[in-house]
Amino acid sequence: MRSDRTAGTPTHAQYLGSSGGLDESGSVTVSGGGRRPELLTMVAKRRLSKSTNEPDEITTKDVARAKKRKIGGRKQTISAQEGEVDDGTVFVQSLKSAGVTLKYGNQPNKLTLDQAVFQKKLYQALRKHPRYPNVIQEFISGLESHIEDRDKFRNCLFPCGQSQEGESSNSVSYQESLIKLLLGIEILQSPVMNTLFEKIPEFMYDGVPEDGINMPRLIINQFKWLGRIVDSKDLTSKIIQLISVAPLEVQRHIITSLPEILEDAQHSEIAKELNCLLQQNTQLTVPILDALSSLNLCTELLVEVRHSVMSTLSAVKLDDLPVVVKFILHAITAADAVEVITELRKNLELESCVLPSQMQASQDKRKQKSVMGASVNQVNSGHDCVAIMFNVIKAAVRFQKATAEAWIKAIEIADSAAEHKVIDLLVLLILHTTSTSNGKKQVEKLFRSKIRLSHVGDQLLQVAFRSHALVVREYFPSVLYLAQILLRSPDGSVVSFGSQMYKHTFMTFDSYCQQEVVGALVTHVCSGFTTEVDISLDVLMDLVSQSLSTMAVYAIFVKGILDYMDNLSPQQIRKLFFVLGTLAFSRGQDGSHIQDDMHIVIRKQLSSTLSKYKRIGIIGAVMMVGCMAYDRSKIEPISSDLPSMSKESFRQATALLELVRTCSEHSAEAAALYYDELANLVQKGNLDPQVQELIGRSVLDDFQEDFVVDLLPETDSKYLLPLKSMYNLDEEDTEGGIVINLLPLLSNSMTSAESENVAGKQGNKKCISPVSLASFFRLLRFCEEVQHSGNLEEIDALLGCPLYMTNLELVEKIASLSKQEQELLCSLLFHTLNWFREVVNAFCKQQDTEMKGKVLLRLQNITHLQVLLEKCLAATPGYVPPLANFDVEITEAPLTTAPAAPAKKGKKDQKSKKKQKSEDNKNSSTDSSQTEDPAEETQVQSENTQGKENIEEGKVLINLNNYRAYFRELDTDVFIVLRCGLVTKSVLDTELHTKATEVVQLSSPELVFLLEDLYHKLDYMLVTTATNKMLFLKVQGDRDVGFSHLRQKTPQALAQFAVELLNPLCGFAQHGNRKLLKLALGVLANRLKAGDGELELEELVRQTFRYLQNFHSSIPRCATAVTLTQLLIVIAKKSLDNQYKGKIASIARGFLCQSWVLPTGEKEKGNKYNEALETLLCFIEIILTEMELLQYFSLMCGYIFVMQHGRLFIESFLKQGMPLLDNSFKKHREDAQSLLKTLQLSTRQLHHMCGHTKLNQDTNLTNHVPPLKRLLELFVCRVKAMLTINKCQEAFWLGNLKNRDLQGGEILSQAESQQESGDDEESELPEDNAEEESEEDLDGGESDTRKATKDDEGISEDSDSD
């Protein structure tokens, strides 16, 4: 409280005025004040002055009498006589004559006149009274005597009643209380106020009386809305004093009533007091802020109060938080809105605003799936204060444009995830709800931006839904709308955030919201946009997996997607049937209607003759079997004791599998798709044992019967090509073994296909074709893995067994073969490659050393066969390979390539070539992976390289990436072979004894093959572009080709797998593999000079660089020069020495100047040659730029360092060194002279640096020049003073020092620069004596002086005098 108030324990006379009287104008004056009066003393006073000589001190007897009177007065509440009060006092008679009749008991006082008339008559009666102004005191004394009785006092505080005669003439339905009417009379206002303030303490600590009337509150209400306050300062002072002594409840009511009591002139004073009180008592936060919000305050005071409130925000009680936030937002102006909102965001910790009980209740609601109805929108202040706070924010941003813009700006400037809080997310929802269309777009843009930058992620979303579900629920329309637009974004992170919004909304809110979410997701699925469909189906799958019972209610909505399957890809159809199958077969009879619809759709699709619809039927049927036969005991141990699938379900699954087999066995492609889908189902490992046993029962026997035969001696071939067994990895004696019957089956299938085409019908017998060979084997190996816990020893003979092929020497003679023979040879190579790919997929995880060696050998077979295949494809234009991936619709034929033109062409030929290229590009797939890839430039083998580069001979350029649809997909497990290193393989004799051992390792072609495939997988799963995202009504068949198995993995899982491969691939970069790096460098370093011992890394880098550098003079091709330059750059980065950069730049410059000539004698040219030259030029520019920047910054940092620390050194020498020389110069004259001469060299160099700075106008150094030059001058004067002290002043002399740059060159002034160079009169002086010339400064008016000594007696120093 204020310091000028009376301290100590005041007497009765000191509290709220102890003496009173009338001033000359008739007004009552009351003086005095106290800090905390004794209650008994306060009650003892009843009349301010009965006589002018009454002492201020109240005796004990008076106090006792006051107590007795008070107690007696309160007992009259029930026994008081009913009727009018008529005691003949001035108070009663004056009121009666003015129109008020006082009543006893519970009867209200009667007012017979209009209120204004009554006030006027009473005022005139008192003013015209013979004893005026003393009659005022008598009137107040009568009032005090009257209100000593509690009932009478209560009647005076209650509204007056109307008498019978008054009702007819008075049209006012509400009458003020008698006290309020008296306070409206100016001559009575102050004494009546004093009387009321004295009465308040009597009731402050009484608690709740029998009649339930709160007397202090009733008294305070009398001060509200007075027309005029005679002495507002005195009223303010008394209110402040009363607040300081009142109990908490009374304090709260007084504070909240202040805006209705005080005039505007007193608002600033009371606001300062409330601000102080706010810091002292946090229990009064709410009433104080409520009052401050209604006061008319100046800006400075408002800012001061706001800062005080903001500083206590973190300690505010949860119940008080809405009021605090409301005040802060109320006090915002447009100028400081951003600053205030930023500080509010910083101090408002919503994470700590959730009570444990609320959190537990929220969790219980989610667990019990209780319905949150419309009552969620009705915020209860006693249960969710956070919701009230957000309602306050909502009101502020809706009606205050500056506040809304400030919130957006504050969120925008937060530049890290750590700076963002859950309040940002909730406020964005509020802004989206309350804004106009333009404002909504701004919020959506901000949402997307923050998600892309990873500032707002799933963690904040989880906190918002988990801890503030009531708030988020209120803005459900905005949540749903934002989720919809985010899911349609081309950015993957934004799409993921939108999907999370859908999932959290469904898991948290009531059935209405859940239905809306499911409806929105179904709309997305039917939209036709590929990525939108994929993500929506993924969300539905997650919801079905996490909340099956809840999703089952909305199965009817999901079933509607069956009408839009034409636009879904096979992978999307798998997801759809998984969702529907799970919903249908997890509810028993409740899902029977969905089961019936699915059976109808599947049977219809399977019976179709179109491959597209038959493919949908096969995929849907297999997925239905997976849902029917799902073994929950492997995921839920609790259900392990439950019986397996019912007989009816098993019967349905068996019948469905038989139906699919029957409908697909007449078509090789349909059968292959069936085997692949069944293999995917078995691979998951969650099938019921009965169904698993049914599938695997006859797989091995059927495979052997269809595709495996005994290896017999070769005889004359009856096929189009000669028969020969190839690629046998087992013992040399192959008779009695097994062989894959590839060529006979392929030849027969081609012959039968031709005969069927001629007959115009398709056979009804089972089709056995090599097309389904790899798919059938994939199913076989998964069945074996499930049956034998991953061990494939039962079928390991298939890894090394040969294949019936033909003599591959025919590849070199392919031009002489017929078209049918050429296509048969190409198909044979495709099937062989696919068989080897699937074999590598199967056995790559086996731990047996022999199997590992055979896997590596199969990879070698693959790379070799790919070279042969390229030659065959180049010689077989128009050939369409057999399918190897059957779950996609191949919409584009392989990219056809024409023979390259001769070296020299006319303009016409060049135009036709461009036209042909344009047509090829038009026919190619829109997918970037279908066009030529940079990986095509990789030299797999010498034959491949020659085939691609020998353009002059007219060979066709083949890119096998364009044939990805016709190769089996490599599983990600295959890349495990990158870790295997060297593998020893045993060669057995006829008696199965080890005849020899050979070491097998992963060579360069196999490594390139694997890395290219890994690159395509990572590019497909992790690299997303807008082109790939927004494809309307186009199934991404071409882009999805070859990635069916990969799509079963999540991008996160693939990224984690790729990271684990970095160790074997990029091990040199790790500090733990430093020895491995040194070993690798040592291989090349020892070729230059064999080392006797272990060399350090730096020396190894130097020698390796020298070894590789020697090749620069013998590089034959420009592309090779680029490779050498890149290799030298990589080697140089292993060293900290920057000398290599200059050498690399010199080598690259030489490559650019060199004339590159082909072996044919022609100069190298073309696009690739130009790209190589551009790459070399970029290398040079980057290296030179780095070197220049390094040199510049090195010099710059050196100059700044010298000038800064040189100045500090000179300053320290002046303070500490020169006093020492003053005292020791005579005794140590030679040492002192030598020290100063040495220091003179440094000061001269500092002088030159100042001149260099002026000449170059270097702003980084200019700020250091003035203080340095002042110190140099001070140093000259200080040396002269030292010599004077020691009586050697004759040794000191001054001269002008020329301005020179850092290289010693003279800096000419503007006048001198216009003269001829021969006019230079500078002379060289002896070493002990410095230059002594007179010349102008660089600015023309500045001279540089220096001092020097004569011979051995003098001392020379530099100085600058401005």
UniProtKB/TrEMBL annotation:
Positions with biased composition (Basic and acidic residues): 1343-1353
BP-aspect Gene Ontology terms: double-strand break repair involved in meiotic recombination; homologous chromosome pairing at meiosis; interstrand cross-link repair; mitotic intra-S DNA damage checkpoint signaling
UniProt cross-references to CDD domains, sorted A to Z: FANCD2
Sequence segments annotated as region (Disordered): 1-39, 897-948, 1309-1362
Localization (cell): Nucleus
Compositionally biased tracts (Basic residues): 904-916
Assigned keywords, A-Z: Isopeptide bond, Nucleus, Ubl conjugation
GO CC terms: condensed chromosome; nucleus
Regions of compositional bias (Acidic residues) in chain numbering: 1317-1342
Record's compositionally biased regions (Low complexity): 21-30
Pfam families recorded: FancD2 (PF14631)
Listed Polar residues bias regions: 1-12, 926-948
GO molecular function: DNA polymerase binding
Family: Belongs to the Fanconi anemia protein FANCD2 family.
Name listed for the protein in its UniProt record: Fanconi anemia group D2 protein
Organism: Scyliorhinus torazame
Taxonomic placement: Eukaryota, Metazoa, Chordata, Craniata, Vertebrata
